[in-house]
Write a structure and sequence with these properties.
The chain has about 775 residues and is of the alpha/beta class. The protein is built from 22 helices and 24 strands. It has six domains: about 90 residues; about 150 residues, 3-Layer(aba) Sandwich (Rossmann fold), CATH 3.40.50.300; about 60 residues, no CATH class; about 80 residues, Winged helix-like DNA-binding domain superfamily/Winged helix DNA-binding domain (Arc Repressor Mutant, subunit A); about 140 residues, Alpha-Beta Horseshoe (Leucine-rich repeat, LRR (right-handed beta-alpha superhelix)); about 170 residues, Leucine-rich repeat, LRR (right-handed beta-alpha superhelix). Helices cover about 35% and strands about 15% of the residues. Helix 16 crosses helix 18. This is Disease resistance protein RGA3.
Length: about 775
């Protein structure tokens, strides 16, 4: 316990030294700034000790107590340091000091060793003749065996898809609420969530209309409820399907299986030795293919595998950990010194999984545990998760050539490779999503302890929350929460809560001065209090979907730590903050769907740290005093998508278009150019040539361009383009062929009523024949 005691003494000394400073000292003398730098290093040292001590905290109550005290002191020290850093930044800004500041990955889950299980289930789903119209098939097995993966294996089979008129998938988990299940069934069936204000009888009517007389397949994933009455209430709503309808239930409980179905459940067992080795080998040796034939590694690997009990989740997680260990001695040490402590018992799976957590690099531990704030079965947006990590200071930028978001995504990829996330799917540029297995979520919850909580009841909200630093909360409970040292306030479930504006802001401003993350979307806010600037630690502010919000208070520019400001889909939002250039740390400005915006504020071009700006609106007549296109010139680290609107109104278009400097924005992946209505200056319609993007661009969309000139010459240089969309009525009579763009998968030309032909200037091959024609194009 010596290291922990020393760390605690260091932390106390740190608090004492910090308390000797006053805010007025900061910026007046450089020796104070030097002291602050040294103190930040001390904080990092203490954090490292804290993480190293976690491995022993499971068995030693004494260490647990020390760690708890150390965490509290460390949090206080961190907040004080943040106060001083913010004040130093404010002084620099007042003094006029100049402060400047994806390619994406795809992952695919593989299923090994479940072909026989799939075949057995397919027979029950497709061939078995039941007396009942709706036949229920339970899949039973303890956590981590792959019940959900097997159900997906069957659900996605082409024969199954062709057999049913309607297919639905609903995650149930801990809370068996019939109304929520019905809402999710409707959402799965229609692709759209039902109105949140509907009563149960209205929802039942919708559901019966949707499934009545249809042959449907429903998966109810991860049921825990073993109360007969609750199940009967749900089952009564499901019997209206046509003959041959099927319900697949996955559960860990044989009692649940008996309640839900009269048939014999399909009991899932551990993988066979051969299949277990195939899965282990594929992951553990992924980084070093040659080791899979090294008899030493193979021998140790098979001994380790014996302790995994054939459980796929455990095999994946342990193998993922070993894949980052380079030597046989490290593998042997893992087997003898840690894995040996875990008995071969189903109940010990969580402890086995924790070994993989213990072996995570320290930079990943906080990131993983933070995910405890998401409810089970929640579909996590990866970009948002990474931004939350950044806001909490978990992501460190040692390499200036990479952005924090790139580094954070690297953290996520590392956790995926260690099997801490699953079902990773990429839907488009910047839109990757994933889930956590229930047992992995249990692991994060057990490690987080009292520091993090999902607050979904009055009882939890009214508990003493002084030690709680991170919460996700039912919005109606926010004013009831007792904690005062929150660093994170997220809202779940995602439901609008009207008439809570004043109570919510009073709580936040008065009691949550340490907040770094604040998420209050869809609250029906009309105004934000001027006192919001008192949240000086704030890094992440999400006010999206507040459709009656028209502006932010002028004082917002004083939150100089702010990194991410999200105002997306605030439909009536009219004006971004003046003095926006004072938000020198801003990296993400979200204003997508802000249809009331008429311009961008002057000074936005000074935000040299800005990485995300999805929309730039040209001031139509200049009456608003907005920024002109030249402010885009220096924003060369912009990433993801950039949409520029009202281009038809630009005066001196050739000069202004060239000033956007788009060809230097090498990180942009999607560019949308919108002319909207015709402007007064017709040369704006002919200047595509001066809007040349960087060749890295993946997606180009052109809307309402009315120029009669040729398409720009740079089109042929965009060899990485995957998507081209041209739409809205225009004067365009011909377009290039685009046929030789090697990566082009989607070409969409819509409502171009004047279009007469596509150029055919294809280069010829050596034999006089045309080279490959649309080599990657997909027919949609």
């Amino acid at each position: 316990m010596g290291a922990e005691a020393i760390a605690f003494d260091l932390a106390v000394e740190l608090i004492t030294k910090l308390s000797s400073f006053t805010l007025s000292q900061i910026g007046l003398c450089w020796n104070v700034k030097d002291d602050l730098h040294d103190l930040k290093s001390t904080v990092s040292t203490i954090k490292a000790v804290l993480l190293d001590a976690e491995e022993r905290s499971v068995t030693s109550q004494l260490v647990k107590d020390w760690l708890e005290k150390l965490r509290d002191v460390l949090y206080d020290a961190d907040d004080l340091l943040d106060d001083f850093s913010a004040e130093a930044l404010r002084k620099d800004l007042l003094g006029g000091n100049k402060l400047t500041k994806e390619q994406t990955h795809s992952f695919k889950d593989k299923i090994i060793g479940r072909d026989d299980d799939k075949a057995a289930l397919l027979k029950l789903v497709l061939e078995f003749e039941s007396e009942d119209n709706v036949y229920i098939i339970p899949i039973v097995g303890f956590g981590g065996l792959g019940k959900t993966a097997l159900a997906q294996f069957v659900y996605n089979d082409e024969m199954v898809k062709n057999c049913f008129e309607l297919m639905m998938w609903v995650c149930v988990s801990d809370v068996f609420d019939v109304k929520i299940i019905v809402e999710n069934m409707i959402k799965s069936a229609t692709g759209k969530a039902p109105d949140q204000n509907l009563e149960m009888d209205q929802l039942q009517k919708q559901l019966r209309e949707k499934i009545g007389g249809k042959k449907y397949l429903l998966v109810l994933d991860d049921i825990w409820n073993d109360e007969w009455g609750n199940w009967v209430n749900l089952k009564e709503l499901l019997v209206g399907g046509a003959k041959g309808s099927r319900i697949i239930v996955t559960t860990r409980s044989s009692k649940v299986a008996k309640i839900t179905s009269k048939c014999q459940p399909h009991v899932l067992k551990g993988l066979s030795d051969d299949d277990a080795w195939s899965l282990f080998k594929e992951i553990a040796f992924e980084q070093r293919r040659t080791d899979s034939t090294d008899s030493g590694f193979v021998e140790i690997g098979k001994l380790i595998l014996e302790r995994c009990c054939g459980v796929p989740l455990v095999i994946r997680t342990i193998a993922g950990t070993l894949s980052f260990k380079e030597t046989k001695n490290e593998w042997l040490s893992f087997k003898d010194n840690e894995l040996a402590k875990i008995s071969q018992n189903e109940c010990e799976i969580l402890l086995t999984l924790k070994l993989s957590y213990d072996h995570l690099p320290s930079r990943l531990k906080h990131c993983f545990v933070y995910c405890r704030l998401y409810p089970k079965d929640y579909v996590i947006r990866v970009q948002t998760l990474v931004q939350l990590w950044i806001a909490q200071g978990f992501v460190k930028q040692f390499n200036q050539s990479k952005s924090l978001e790139e580094i954070g995504f690297g953290y996520f990829k590392d956790l995926v490779e260690r099997s801490f996330f699953q079902e990773v799917v990429e839907y488009g540029i910047g839109d990757m999503r994933c889930k956590m297995h229930d047992l992995i979520h249990d692991l994060a919850e057990s490690i987080a302890g009292a520091e993090s909580s999902i607050v979904h009841s009055n009882k939890i909200a009214s508990k003493d929350g002084e030690k709680c630093r991170h919460i996700s909360i039912n919005p109606s409970l926010i004013p009831l929460f007792k904690g005062k040292k929150l660093r994170t306030l997220l809202q779940f479930p995602n439901k609008r809560v009207p008439n809570l504006s004043d109570e919510t802001w009073n709580f936040v401003i008065a009691k949550c001065r340490c907040l770094r993350v604040l998420e209050l979307y869809d609250f029906d806010f009309k105004m934000i209090p001027r006192s919001i600037h008192k949240l000086k630690h704030l890094r992440y502010l999400d006010l999206s979907c507040n459709e009656n919000l028209k502006s932010l208070p002028k004082s917002i520019y004083k939150i100089q730590n702010l990194q991410m400001l999200k105002l997306d889909w605030c439909d009536r939002f009219e004006e971004l903050p003046k003095k926006i250039e004072k938000l020198v740390n801003l990296t993400h400005l979200g204003c997508e769907g802000c249809n009331g915006l008429t311009h961008m504020p002057r000074g936005i071009g000074k935000l040299s740290s800005l990485e995300t700006l999805r929309m730039f609106i040209v001031d139509k007549d200049g009456s608003h005093g907005g920024a002109d296109l030249s402010e885009l010139s220096g924003l060369n680290i912009l990433r993801g998508e950039l949409r520029i609107t009202n281009l038809g109104f630009v005066k001196n278009a050739k000069e202004k278009f060239k000033a956007t400097n788009l060809k230097e924005k090498q990180h942009l992946r999607s560019l949308v150019l919108e002319w909207n209505r015709r402007g007064d200056d017709n040369d704006a319609n002919k200047s595509l040539e001066d809007l040349q993007p960087h060749p890295n661009l993946k997606e180009l969309c052109i809307r309402g361009w009315r120029g009669d000139a040729k398409f720009p010459s740079w089109i042929s240089l965009l060899t990485n383009l995957v998507v081209i969309r041209i739409w809205d009525p225009s004067n365009v009579k011909h377009v290039p062929s685009f046929a030789q763009l090697p990566c082009l998968k989607e070409l969409s030309i819509t409502d171009c009523t004047e279009l007469e032909y596509m150029d055919d200037n294809s280069p010829k091959g050596g034999q006089g024949e045309a080279q490959s024609f649309f080599p990657s194009l997909k027919v949609l």
